[in-house]
Specification:
The structure is a homodimer. Chain A has 12 helices and 15 strands. In chain A, the strands form 4 sheets. Chain A has a 7-stranded mixed beta sheet, with helices on both faces. In chain A, strands 11-12-15-14 form a 4-stranded antiparallel beta sheet, covered by helices on one side. Chain A has a two-stranded parallel sheet with strand order 1-13. The N and C termini of chain A lie far apart (about 55 Å). In chain A, about 55% of the residues are buried. The interface between A and B is large, with 86 and 86 residues.
Chain lengths: ~400, ~400
């Protein structure tokens, strides 16, 4: 039998591979100015501290770290996350309510594996993180889009959607959302925690950008208002330490986490010990807070530069004004399509991501996402100049 | 709504968490002699080389390694695996036909995600690796047991089972199988590759113990006889370098691997770069072959010691005589149950794993698995003395 006759699982039908991953082929070429990815800037990666900590750990407890570890995670890290999560997200957990994941994407994957039957309704911001949409599609969830404005999900619409569609789960990125950069307001956070408890809907609160705030006041997590156990907080060190380490966490009710741990046992057994221990020591040595403080001005200046440039382009109908995170979302008039702009820009060495793949319902070809964390300030200016030239010719 | 009213996904019904993982609670207590796990001995973990390599890597290319990486894997490692796989498994691949996974368990998970619909028939050795059974159950595969003897799967029975049940996949551990230690003969390897092509059955060839051979001649992989693309080789560095690093690989047809990569995108995005680069440099510096050569005598002596002891216990009806790997499988008379022996031994600080959970069809309460890689030679003698005492009282 020829291998081309192999049938894949039904769940693969809706899963064609990320359009965005294709774009990364262009992005990795030397000289390309990338507004496409979600990569931290090179200046924000603390490789010297990681090198030192890694060396110390392998010399002092190498045998333990190279051995198999617990599926739930490296216990010292689960302990040090108690304080980290309380300080950052204003939510209190016991170590037993925290499970270490291989990035926060794995947290969503494990939640879906434990919870989602084919056809189950999952509500999500529209637009939302394309990787999350892929993950939900792989579990054959029916993803329904939620109306959002500049302070996030409309809670009245959310309640209506929960009731109408008997939603199983809400997937939300409440802070500096991907792709919009928008932050859910305090009132709405409280309201969503209440709706979760009232209707019995699991909330996957994905909050990897929380500490990357350049203006305004930090907000408590949705989880901090959850008295019922229906909210699970997904966190990551990819944006504040290093994505290459693949260390994140999920924190929530042990009733849910126990099942996620069973799923993790037969997914990757456990997250690599050395990587967990590096994050643990980074936290315990008090390095994270000063590191974040040191990188915020660089990111903030890049965002301000890009926002200022966007305000000078008359063809742009709307762009978001985030207070932090990595992304700005741009809309042209509804009859426009960014495809020609994308091709022209790529041809000249500037990359961005069209907005359409971020919408659960598709469409919105008049939108695009800009990332400002990866390029230098100079490259942001050069890249925006080039983009603007093509906007003048192709979007007028 | 109270959180206890949460409904989990149907796939969780058959997934109660590994009975074996429960045993590990006892095993981690100080002073316990463990024949229970599959852990490498502490002497076999090259922590000094890993510490040196890790330091060099983070100093010379820290920024790159801490950044996001490709889902397919760190390209230098995919390149160096070409030679490694050819030398070890006698199978040739291009780098594009090799994908790095977070341990070989993830390879099976990705294969299942890409291929298995609920109810699909997967054939497996009986008994087989309990983690693989859990993984297959999570995808609601119907796992059917295959007859095996002391040279592995009976190929006539395999062919009959493929035809009768329209099997989608064969999961096999051909070399020093877990839990039996048995190795599939050369003739049967050829025959299985042929059956895969004839009937269009995917073979997941899981071969993590391949290099741990203490006597006899190395055999080529099933994959080495595959001209059709239906065999996927799953490999791991957990048993020859360090399980804590979580680095494995899958090698096979790009038609299959492309879909697995899509699944990995929304599982853990990519395997941690530092861990991949450590394995890459370990291979490129030629450290693996001498390391394996150095650890084989220690493992071989432990196995020989345990085998000799087993031959002196008259109540044991059968035990396997492996040429390598980590495990020996022991059977008592069919009317016996190892439960009482297990409890008595645990009470005195000796742990093993009952055989029943390894059988897709259950039963076989008269069997148990012994691991000889984790305890020292002295502890093996002490532990076997204790076990023998309880066998004399509880199994006679």
């Amino acid at each position: 039998v020829d291998i081309t006759e192999l049938h894949f699982a039904q769940r693969m039908n809706g899963l064609t591979g990320s359009a965005i991953r294709e774009i990364f082929k262009y992005v990795s070429k030397p000289g390309v100015i990338s507004f496409a990815g979600g990569n931290p800037g090179a200046f924000a990666l603390p490789h010297e501290d990681v090198a030192r900590i890694s060396g110390e750990l392998l010399r002092s407890q190498g045998k333990t770290l190279l051995q198999y570890g617990a599926t739930e995670g490296y216990f010292p890290l689960r302990e040090s996350l108690v304080g980290y999560i309380e300080d950052t997200f204003q939510a209190r957990f016991a170590p037993q309510e925290i499970v270490i994941t291989s990035g926060s994407m794995q947290g969503l994957d494990l939640l879906c594996k434990a919870l989602i039957n084919p056809g189950d309704v999952v509500l999500a911001e529209s637009p939302t993180f394309v990787g999350a949409l892929q993950c939900l599609n792989a579990y054959q969830a029916q993803v329904l889009p939620l109306k959002c404005d500049d302070t996030g999900i409309d809670p009245d619409h959310l309640e209506e959607m929960i009731k109408t569609h008997h939603a199983k789960m809400l997937y939300t990125i409440p802070t500096f959302q991907n792709p919009t950069g928008i932050t859910l307001s305090l009132e709405r956070r409280k309201r969503i925690a209440g709706l979760a408890a009232k209707y019995g809907v699991v909330v996957a609160e994905d909050d990897p950008y929380h500490s990357l705030r350049y203006t305004g006041e930090a907000l408590p997590s949705i989880k901090s208002f959850d008295t019922s156990g229906w909210v699970v907080l997904l966190g990551s060190f990819s944006k504040v330490i290093a994505p290459g380490l693949r260390v994140g966490f999920m924190a929530g009710s042990e009733i849910i986490l126990r099942r996620c741990v069973t799923c993790k046992q037969c997914a990757d057994v456990h997250t690599a010990n050395l990587n967990q221990a590096i994050v643990d020591v980074y936290l315990r040595q008090g390095l994270l807070t000063p590191h974040i403080r040191a990188i915020l001005p660089g990111y903030g200046a890049r965002m301000a530069c890009m926002l200022e440039y966007l305000s000078t382009i008359p063809q742009i109908r709307h762009f978001t004004k985030p207070e932090g995170g990595l992304f700005i979302f741009v809309s042209f008039d509804e009859d426009k399509d960014v495809a020609a702009l994308f091709n022209a820009a790529i041809g000249k060495g500037v990359a961005f991501v069209p907005g359409s793949p971020f919408y659960p319902e598709g469409g919105h070809k008049n939108t695009l996402r800009l990332n400002f964390s990866s390029a230098s300030l100079e490259d942001i200016k050069r890249g925006m100049d080039l983009l603007n030239q093509y906007i003048q010719t192709s979007m007028s």
